[in-house]
Amino acid sequence: MHTAITARVLGLLLIIFSLTMLPPVLVALWYEESTSRMFLLAFSITLLVGLLFWLPMRSSTGELRTRDGFVVTVFFWLVLSTFGTLPFMLSDALQLSFIDALFESISGLTTTGATVISGLDTLPKSILYYRQQLQWLGGIGIVVIAVAILPMLGVGGMQIYRAETPGPMKDSKITPRITETANVLFKIYVALTAVCALAYWIAGMSLFDAICHSFSTVAIGGFSTHDASIGFFDSGAIMAICTFFMVVSGINFALHYAAWHDRQLSFYWTDPEARLYLALLAVGAAITCLYLYFSGTYGWSDSIRQGIFQLVSIMTTTGFATADFNAWPTFLPFFLIFLSFFGACAGSTGGGIKIGRMLILWQQGVREIYQLVHPNAVLPIKINNRKVPDRIADAIWAFFGVYLAVFYLMVLLLLASGLDYVTAWSATAASLNNLGPGLGAVASNYAELGSFAKWVLCWGMLLGRLEIFTLLVLFTPTFWRR
After folding, report:
1. By the 8 A CB rule, do 350 and 249 touch?
2. What's this model's pTM, rounded to 2 decimal places?
3. What are the residue ranges of helices labelled H in 204-271?
4. Is-contact 169 254, C-beta < 8 A?
5. How far apart are CA 394 and CA 392, in angstroms?
6. Which of 53, 239, 442, 471 gets the most CB atoms within 10 Å of its CB?
7. What is the reported pLDDT for 177?
8. Residue 16's closest CA among 199, 141, 112, 100?
9. Whole-number Å distance between alpha carbons of 426 and 338
10. CB atoms near residue 12 (< 10 Å)
């Protein structure tokens, strides 16, 4: 492993990350808040440490190898999450312990949306903005790494459709160079954010709320500037806008590029992963709305509004709320959390196992059933009439098996910490799927959990964001052998 080059990259990441603590300073000055010094101190500490990493290694040259790529990818979230705690710990308005500050920081950067903070409506605007900005930065980090980097390391979900989808996804990179790839993705991401913010503002949000919620909507994060989340605004127009952008942000960003580049919306329907994603959202929304109505929870119009919004919010792993879905009839809360395991598409800002993997798992399951009837038949798995390599199918089954093992290990650890089963199960699902809200004691906030449970969930959020293998590989002896 190239330690010098890795240290240089991490130092550069910290230097860049330190600059993101300056916009909250401007927010503090604009609203005449006393938090500007806090953010300036956090900026100075982060910048100093970044320079200490970067300066001694700035002349190091060479290419990052696969192992270096794994280390940089993991430390991207570990290091930035750690330094992201500084504003939370330095804030007199919050007075968070280190584990609470780390939980909030990791939840923001991994776009999980679980929080230990309450009383959002009374917090300084600069802190509220900083939380939203963390999710926005984490969202673009996810997209760039998932689309441009992880496929070349042989992990993640993007390689599943590399040869089967139109436009740029035919290549190992959207454009010939990673810098160009990142540039294209960033422009799409910023454009979506800007349009979302404008739509929110026109629909009645204040400019501050519109910008902040556009950050967490496009990042599929779920943080809000109000305790009541999107329900605070009590607006059908805002709910509709939020629903649309959650759906859009859950689609592969490489597919957005293909549709924009070739000016063909048909790409969204011809892509098998996007097609299944939209179909599951439609079917899930129909089931939710009908159950809400026939169970007498709401009238017909409220059943449609609340059902569609909450289904999209949970399945895309955003985590926004307009109602307490934990209080809905027992079937629905578990149904919604169950759909979060499907999550969004590969190469999006969403979490979960990913629709692409689920599609391959389904096809392989069907193939095994046919194989029992016709044991000598050759039945390849195909996507768009192209064969999916057995190596990819095997890797997906391995991922699914490890995912379940990690999931129930986390559940057991949370049960050992004293939580009831519903809380432990839903909190694990919410962290590993990067969802946010759970059931039981974590339906709205995670502040009451013990430190041990929060540590477990922090690792769960990181495992879910890094798609498990990327983090677990660092704990294997093979990885560190020369």
Report:
1. yes
2. 0.89
3. 207-218, 236-249, 253-262, 266-270
4. yes
5. 5
6. 442
7. 58
8. 141
9. 9
10. 16
Q: Which residues contact 403 (CB under 8 A, 6 or more apart)?
A: 353, 432, 468
Per DSSP, which regions of 362-481 are E strands?
382-383, 386-387
Q: What is the CA radius of gyration of the chain?
A: 22
* Tokens matching residue 374: 């016709």
Q: What does the pLDDT read at residue 145?
A: 67
Q: How far apart are CA 281 and CA 274, in angstroms?
A: 11
Q: Calculate the alpha carbon distances from 396 to 356, 393, 403 in Å.
A: 10, 5, 10
Q: Residue count of the chain, please give it.
A: 482
Q: pLDDT per residue over 384-399, tens digit each?
A: 677 777 777 888 888 8
CA distance 135 to 317: 13
DSSP character for 65?
-
- Contact residues for 113 (Cβ-Cβ < 8 A; gap 6+): 107, 135, 216, 221, 222, 223, 318, 319, 434, 435, 436, 437
Report the alpha-carbon distance of residue 29 to residue 261 in Å, rounded. Answer: 41
Is residue 175 within 8 Å of residue 184, measured between CB atoms?
yes
The confidence score (pLDDT) of residue 356 equals 86
